[in-house]
Description:
Farnesyl Diphosphate Synthase, two-stranded antiparallel sheet, globular
Amino acid sequence: MSDWIAARxxxxxxxxxxxxxxxxxxxxxxxxxxxxxxxxxxxxxxPLLVYAAGEFAGAAEAALDPIAAAVEFVHAYSLxxxxxxxxxxxxxxxxxxxxxxxxxxxxAMLTGDALQAEAFRVLAEAPVAAETGMALIRDLAQASxxxxxxxGQAIDLAxxxxxxxxxxxxxxxRMKTGALLRASITMGATAGCVSTAERAxxxxxxxxxxxxxxxxxDLLDAVATSAELGKTAxxxxxxxxxxxxxxxxxxxxxxxxxxxxxxxHDALSSLGPEAQSRTTRLGQLADLIVQRRx
Amino acid sequence: MSDWIAARxxxxxxxxxxxxxxxxxxxxxxxxxxxxxxxxxxxxxxPLLVYAAGEFAGAAEAALDPIAAAVEFVHAYSLxxxxxxxxxxxxxxxxxxxxxxxxxxxxAMLTGDALQAEAFRVLAEAPVAAETGMALIRDLAQASxxxxxxxGQAIDLAxxxxxxxxxxxxxxxRMKTGALLRASITMGATAGCVSTAERAxxxxxxxxxxxxxxxxxDLLDAVATSAELGKTAxxxxxxxxxxxxxxxxxxxxxxxxxxxxxxxHDALSSLGPEAQSRTTRLGQLADLIVQRRx
Lengths: 294, 294
């Protein structure tokens, strides 16, 4: 597994390194900030899900690189904007100063805006059939918009200091982080070929993994240190944000993440033993997402 | 002309009114802010250019509505982000409080982000052949990104308090406002069918009109009142931003805008008398852009 991950991460870094605009080209400060925001040693969970789902679906690797880049650009832009003073006001991300600290607020704003444009551009230039490209762009735009990531963040903003029950929290997180994780999986599959039953199983897997990811994020925010996370820990509680830990308690949240991990494996197993060799990576990524320590 | 404009503006308002997410649907505050940002009585210069170029190219009207919406969503998102305190810090836009004043900064940030996603979504769902859709998305992403609008804004940021010559100013504005105006014209044409010579003429027209638009903007900022403009006038000078007025002087700037208007007409005339009936609207829009008073 670690070989597979390292190989895909290496492939991904190589692709985005070459794809992101050159720092030596004008506007240099903006280009430098975009590279700083993306090339910062993230875990690349979303790209790994793209590759794993794409390989399951028999997609060409060259078609998966731009998809992986697109979802990571959207993820990176959302972090840059989220960290700004008018949102979460955070100074630390992946162990380094956030973009608005390392550069300035206006550059951070433009960096996020330009990364979103780049996400759609890399898809529109992907080596896939035009119909496939249009489906990928629809999926990403949907996952990023008001019924996906941006909408989840809006609900998150409104929730500060409010109480939420577990169902409301789940709705918010399915939009805020789940939608893009889910799109990573469905877009990887779209680049290849899957049966209706396979797509349904992947969607079930994606729903479980997307939610598990957020529960684990909440657990880590509550129990890990900033040094372990590379970002400010304990922030949710200080900001009085409802989280799975505040709503369910640590133990119940941990049990739920384990149940979702089992659900993800069940979704893959439902495809029968003959699919097993193709679902190995997806199963391992579910384990990684739930069992990670940062 | 005013009938044609009123009809296209009416058609456009109707389309985006129905297309923008409903304020009654969650997340309501975000949806309300998106509608506030777009449905605010702008002049719709970019949509009008889309319709005029599309009608020149014989495109179906139903294909032009989503293109007009996409360019206007990008334009609207850029205004929302531009007006924020970390950028231009402006409180007035089209005669109303800016989005971060009427709502709040975090909502303004998300509104811009979500409008950009909507722009690509409306194109990805447009009733056009997939190849056409991909070309449209490439064009819009290019015009919005670091070699277009975002890049121009980054250069603009770096220019505050600096001196610029006319050539540097032109480069900045060709990116900052010219790229999206140009894309409005080329995308409208892409939805239909144009010969190589026609495309070249349209691009020449677009370059002239895009630059003329900005020169007139600079002139209006210097000479009109806030009430006439519906936005804060005299801002460029207070912010020590290089403009065509500060670099060339009012009279030379006005003469240049007139020369560009003539160039736009020449580009259309180069297609010969048989094309004249198809280029009327484009010619009239060039006049409107240069001779507007707000």
